[in-house]
Design goal:
It is a single chain. By secondary structure, the protein is α+β, with helices and mostly antiparallel strands. It has 2 domains: 78 residues; 101 residues, ATP synthase, E subunit, C-terminal (hypothetical protein PF0899 fold), CATH 3.30.2320. The protein is built from 4 helices and 4 strands, in the order ααβαβββα. Strands 2-1-3-4 form a 4-stranded mixed β-sheet. β3 and β4 form a beta hairpin. α1 packs across α4. The longest helix is centred in the first third of the chain and has 98 residues.
Length: 202
């Protein structure tokens, strides 16, 4: 009887141990499977983060390269324009300023322009001249030019006009500007393409 009880106890122990071992192995296998799933998901997420970071870095690099190229092109254009302006300034500004500050030269242009105004229908004119040349030009306008155009002409002198003149009908409906600034702009517009070709071969 005692032997049978011992056998039964041993058998129950072995069965319980065997069953516990099986359950333990099943739990361990399931835990390993879950751990592998978690690791796989973590690897995928890590790869996704890495891919996104690499794409962002590539996009940023492309943007920076584009910005640098654009800035370089703009800087080159600005430098070229500065060189053109400097060259045109040397070629145009001083000669134009000297010519349009010369009373005799202004008289010649003024005669031609004023005659053109009165070619079809005489009209009273107003002319604005450099204040620095008032003593040389006022007698010319009031006497010689008034007779030449055969109509009234009013002369005003302004410190804002350093060379050349503005002329138009006395009613102020319009005027023509032949000052040193407008001459520089006009001549500069014609010379700029030639200057580009000489300087940059464009």
């Amino acid at each position: 009887m005692e032997n049978k009880l011992q056998e039964l106890t041993d058998r129950l122990y072995k069965e319980g141990l065997s069953k516990g071992k099986e359950e333990g192995e099943a739990i361990l296998a399931k835990a390993n499977e879950k751990a592998e799933e978690i690791l796989s998901a973590a690897r995928k997420e890590a790869q996704s983060i890495l891919d996104a970071a690499q794409k962002e870095a590539k996009d940023f690099k492309t943007k920076v390269e584009g910005d640098v190229k654009m800035a370089a092109a703009q800087s080159l254009q600005a430098t070229k324009k500065d060189i053109e302006d400097l060259m045109l300034h040397k070629m145009v500004d001083a000669p134009v300023a000297a010519s349009l500050a010369d009373a005799d030269f202004i008289k010649e242009i003024l005669r031609s322009v004023a005659a053109g105004f009165n070619a079809e229908k005489p009209q009273d004119l107003s002319v604005i001249l450099p204040a620095a040349l008032q003593d040389k030009l006022e007698p010319f306008v009031k006497e010689e030019l008034a007779k030449a155009v055969g109509s009234g002409i009013e002369a005003k002198f302004s410190k804002q006009v350093s060379g050349g003149f503005n002329i138009g009908p006395k009613d102020g409906s319009y005027f023509i500007s032949l000052t040193d600034e407008t001459f520089k702009e006009l001549i500069g517009a014609y010379l700029r393409p030639a200057a580009k070709k000489i300087l940059f071969g464009e």
